[in-house]
Write a structure and sequence with these properties.
Strand content: 35-45%
Helix content: under 10%
Largest sheet: 6 strands, mixed
C-alpha cells in the first residue's frame, strides 16, 4: 500500500542550540537573544568534513524542533532546523567525491532527506516509494557519489509543505575543478513564510483555497531572515547561488543599480554568461548569478522581488498575494569602505548539455486542475493513480509537459537532469541543465535527457500544496524496458 506523499503532521517543538556560524544562520543564543547582527560578512561556513578519507566528505545531519527568529523579533516556537541552523549547514564537496551523511530524525514522525537535483541512486533519493522512511528518533546513512557540479539543496520529502515552512532546508555546493573562484560568494535560500499577524507564529493552513492556490507568505526571507544585510566591496565580483525554497511563490528578482549575469542553472554551469535585467525562479529552481558591484561606500542596494501572477491574466482568477501587488525587498547589500577587484568569468567548458532536438518524444504529461472540486491531476489522475511512465535508460529521449490549466506549475523530475528544448515552441534564453522548470498556463515545454541514471523516479509539481493534493507520479528508467507507449 502506498503511503501519502506528504503527511500533514505537526511536531511538538522545543528550543535549539546556538548556531556555529551566526553570520550565515539564524537562531537564538544562550540568553534567548536573536542572532545575527544587522550587518554581516560576505560568505558562509561550510559543514565540517568528519571523514578523513580521500574522496569522501562525511557529514552529520540531524533535524529537530528549533526556535528561530525570522527577523520579526519573535521566536517561532514551532520552528524546525537541521543541526540547529536555518538554513541547515552548507554541504560542500568536489565533483566526483562521495558524500556520506549520517542522518538522524529528531522529529516526532517519520521523515526522509531528498537531495534535490542530485543524480543519486534511487534508494538514496528520499522519495518514500524507493526507500523505507526514517522513523522518529531513528537514523539512516545516505551515501552516494557526486556526479554533477552545481548548486543543489536538501529538504524532507514527507510533511514537506509544513516542514519547509518551519525551516527545514539546506544548501549543497558541488565544485567543478575549472569553475571560477571569487573572493565573495554567498549561497542564498529564498523563501516566504505565512505568519499570523497577531502572534507572529506560523499561520495554520486552514482553507481549501490555500491548498489549491498554494501557500503564499507575508514575510520574505533570505537565509532565514527578513532583515538580511550583507556588506560587499565596490568593484569586486560576487557569486550569488540562489535557490527558491518557497511553497508556492515565484521570485521575480532584480538587484537595484546592478546588472546580474546568469552563469549557472539548476544542475551546472553555462557555456557562457547571460546578462539579465530580472530573473524569475519558481519553487525548487536554482541559479548561479555573477554581480560586479557598482556603488559608493554606504550605498544600500536591495534585492527586490516583484509580484508574480500565478494565474493566466485572462483567467479572471481572484488571486491574492499577502505581499501586495508591487515590489518587495528580499535582502540588502551594503557597499563597504574597501574596494575590491573583479574576477574574470571563465566558465567550465565540459558541463554543457547537447541535444539535437530530434530526440523521440517518449511521453507527454498533461497537467490540469479542477478548481470547483479541488482536484489537481497529471494525465487525468491524481497520485497514487497517475499511470507510471516507463522508458529505456541511456537513450537520449524527449518529453513534453503540457499545461491545460490556467496556473503556472513548477515541474520537478527526480534522478535525471534535463535540458529545456522549447517553451511554447520557442528555444529558451538560458540553455543549461535543469531538473525544475516552469510550465506556463495553457502552454507546453519540451525537454530532453540522456536518461543516464536508471531507477524509479518521482515527478511532481513543486508547488508543495499541489504535490500533496496528488499532482505527482513516477517514471521508471531501466535497461531493456518496453516503454509501452
Amino acid at each position: 500500500m502506498l503511503l501519502p506523499l506528504f503527511a500533514l503532521l505537526l511536531p511538538a517543538c522545543t528550543g535549539g542550540k546556538t548556531p556555529d556560524s551566526p553570520g550565515d544562520t539564524v537562531g537564538n543564543d544562550d540568553t534567548g537573544e536573536p542572532l545575527p547582527s544587522p550587518t554581516e560578512r560576505c560568505g558562509y561556513t561550510a559543514a565540517t568534513d568528519l571523514d578523513p578519507a580521500d574522496g569522501v566528505v562525511g557529514i552529520e545531519l540531524s533535524q529537530a524542533p528549533f526556535e528561530w527568529d525570522p527577523g520579526t523579533g519573535t521566536m517561532l516556537t514551532e520552528g524546525l532546523a537541521y543541526n540547529g541552523e536555518v538554513p541547515g549547514p552548507v554541504i560542500e564537496a568536489e565533483l566526483g567525491q562521495t558524500l556520506r551523511t549520517e542522518f538522524t530524525n529528531g522529529l516526532a514522525y517519520d521523515s526522509t532527506v531528498h537531495w534535490h537535483g542530485l543524480r543519486v541512486p534511487d534508494e538514496m533519493d528520499g522519495a518514500i516509494r524507493m526507500m523505507d522512511m526514517v522513523p522518529a528518533g531513528g537514523s539512516f546513512t545516505y551515501e552516494f557519489m557526486l556526479k554533477d557540479a552545481g548548486f543543489y539543496w536538501y529538504h524532507p520529502h514527507m510533511a514537506t509543505e509544513q516542514d519547509l515552512e518551519r525551516g527545514l532546508y539546506g544548501r549543497i555546493i558541488v565544485r567543478h575543478p575549472d569553475e571560477p573562484r571569487v573572493d565573495c560568494e554567498l549561497p542564498v535560500v529564498l523563501d516566504d513564510i505565512l505568519l499570523d499577524e497577531d502572534t507572529l507564529q506560523v499561520a495554520p493552513q486552514d482553507t481549501d483555497h490555500m491548498q489549491l492556490m498554494g501557500r503564499l507568505g507575508n514575510v520574505l526571507l533570505a537565509n532565514g531572515r527578513s532583515d538580511r544585510r550583507i556588506e560587499v566591496k565596490a568593484g569586486e565580483t560576487m557569486l550569488l547561488r540562489l535557490v527558491n525554497a518557497a511553497n508556492a511563490r515565484y521570485f521575480d528578482l532584480t538587484l537595484e543599480g546592478q546588472r546580474m549575469r546568469v552563469v549557472g542553472t539548476d544542475g551546472g554551469w553555462l557555456a557562457e554568461e547571460v546578462p539579465v535585467d530580472n530573473l524569475v525562479l519558481g519553487p525548487g529552481e536554482r541559479a548561479i548569478v555573477a554581480v560586479d558591484w557598482v556603488g559608493a561606500p554606504g550605498d544600500e542596494l536591495r534585492l527586490m522581488s516583484a509580484r508574480f501572477q500565478l494565474h493566466d491574466e485572462d483567467a479572471h482568477m481572484s488571486e491574492y498575494d499577502p505581499m501586495g501587488n508591487g515590489e518587495n525587498p528580499v535582502m540588502t547589500f551594503v557597499i563597504g569602505d574597501e574596494a575590491g577587484t573583479p574576477t574574470p568569468m571563465t566558465l567550465p567548458s565540459d558541463d554543457v548539455p547537447a541535444f539535437t532536438g530530434e530526440e523521440p518524444v517518449a511521453h507527454t504529461w498533461v497537467l490540469d486542475e479542477d478548481m470547483m472540486n479541488g482536484i489537481v491531476t497529471i494525465d487525468g489522475a491524481s497520485y497514487p493513480d497517475v499511470p507510471p511512465v516507463i522508458v529505456e535508460a541511456n537513450v537520449p529521449t524527449a518529453f513534453v509537459v503540457q499545461n491545460d490549466s490556467e496556473m503556472h506549475h513548477p515541474f520537478h523530475l527526480h534522478g535525471n537532469r534535463f535540458q529545456v528544448l522549447a517553451v511554447n515552441g520557442v528555444p529558451p534564453e538560458i540553455d543549461g541543465w535543469k531538473d525544475t522548470f516552469d510550465i506556463p498556463p495553457f502552454g507546453s515545454v519540451e525537454i530532453a535527457s540522456a536518461l543516464d541514471n536508471p531507477g524509479e523516479w518521482m515527478f511532481h509539481c513543486h508547488i508543495l500544496e499541489h504535490a500533496e493534493l496528488g499532482m505527482a507520479g513516477f517514471f521508471m528508467v531501466g535497461e531493456g524496458m518496453d516503454d509501452g507507449m
